[in-house]
Design goal:
By secondary structure, the chain is of the alpha/beta class. The chain is built from 13 helices and ten strands. The strands form three sheets. It has a six-stranded parallel sheet with strand order 7-6-5-8-9-10, with helices on both faces. A two-stranded parallel sheet has the order 1-2. A two-stranded parallel ribbon has the order 3-4. The radius of gyration is 21 Å and the shape is globular.
Length: about 325
């Protein structure tokens, strides 16, 4: 979710050079952004713990001098790093995450069910604290007519008909639509010879499930474990629509301006984590007094039945996908 903001910043200030510090696996998403160097930091192994961060900072600071530092994360690790930058004289500005408003949105009783500021706006606010004002102006990482590389075409073939991408999983149970209902959606579209279904997922268990669906339904291809992040972005760029949970895949598709039909259970777009440029008309959710009960979907269901997900019908999802196909 930082990418549309950073891209908009660079568009307004093309003479400014950015060094982006994040987890190594995210480098592919930043490769097409001008005036940006990506530095991956392994905070679990090579630079784990306080002394690991201190060692990284000493090495990092020798190679680069910064005029200003923006902390877009505001967690313990980034707080340590921004303290170190301050000690060496760099001005530092940090995100305000709105934790109080988010607690009020998700508390069990007397919820304040209002639309909170989006994360994109919160990220932009950090830059504005540092004196950089700019509009959010992002048109996608790739052109829509960009050719797919040979390794992708070898598996998927040339783009013909409609491509329906489906990312059926999420990190937490409060964000995962029932498997049998997802299979109903896949079964419906797999009967249409003009639709190719591309399944996205990661991890051994997800990979096993998706490969089983590939064998069960026609015109279905599992992409689990077959491509890196940059290639997956290119595939999503050519897809006509993505069916996704409230997960990272929704944001990946948003980076290439592919419409997303997104399913929301324990979480809610009100929290400010909706995909950049996505239509709210493509959200699938049910109104319940207990929703949202969590910002990230990681809390146990108070009703113990995940009605927020089970009450959503496959027909609702199919209708929204077909509407996008028809546009």
């Amino acid at each position: 979710m930082t990418i549309p903001v950073i891209s908009s910043f660079i568009k307004k200030y093309p003479d400014v050079h950015i060094t982006m510090l994040s987890k190594p696996q995210f480098s592919g998403m930043f490769s097409g952004i001008a005036n940006l160097d990506f530095v991956g930091i392994d905070t679990k192994n090579e630079y784990g713990g306080f002394f690991g961060l201190l060692r990284f900072f000493r090495h990092f600071r020798k190679k680069r001098k910064f005029d200003v530092v923006f902390d877009l994360h505001d967690v313990l690790r980034s707080k340590i790093l921004r303290l170190l930058f301050r000690l060496y004289g760099a001005p530092v500005f940090a995100i305000r995450k709105g934790r109080k408003e988010k607690r009020e949105l998700t508390r069990p009783d007397n919820k304040k069910q209002i639309q909170l500021k989006s994360s994109f706006e919160r990220y932009r606010d950090v830059f504005e604290k540092g004196g950089f004002s700019f509009p959010l102006d992002f048109s996608g990482l790739f052109p829509k007519n960009m050719d797919l590389p040979q390794n992708i075409r070898a598996l998927l073939g040339e783009k013909e008909g409609k491509w329906l991408a489906i990312a059926p999983f999420a990190q937490h149970a409060g964000k995962v639509y029932p498997v049998e209902k997802i299979k109903t959606v896949i079964d419906y579209f797999s009967q249409n010879g003009d639709v190719k279904i591309l399944l996205f997922g990661g991890g051994e268990n997800e990979k096993k499930i998706l490969e089983e669906w590939e064998k069960t339904f026609p015109h279905v291809i599992s992409l689990a474990g077959k491509f890196g992040l940059y290639d997956e972005l290119q595939i999503l760029n050519r897809a006509d629509v993505l069916l996704s949970m409230d997960s990272a895949n929704m944001h990946l598709a948003s980076l290439v301006q592919t419409p997303v039909v997104s399913v929301w259970g324990a979480t809610h777009p009100f929290a400010g984590f909706y995909g950049f440029g996505q239509s709210t008309g493509n959200v699938v959710q049910v109104d319940l007094p207990c929703r949202p009960c969590s910002i990230y979907g990681n809390k146990p269901c108070l009703r113990q039945d995940y009605a927020c997900l089970n009450m959503i019908t496959s027909h609702e999802i199919i209708e929204k996908i077909e509407k996008i196909f028809g546009e």
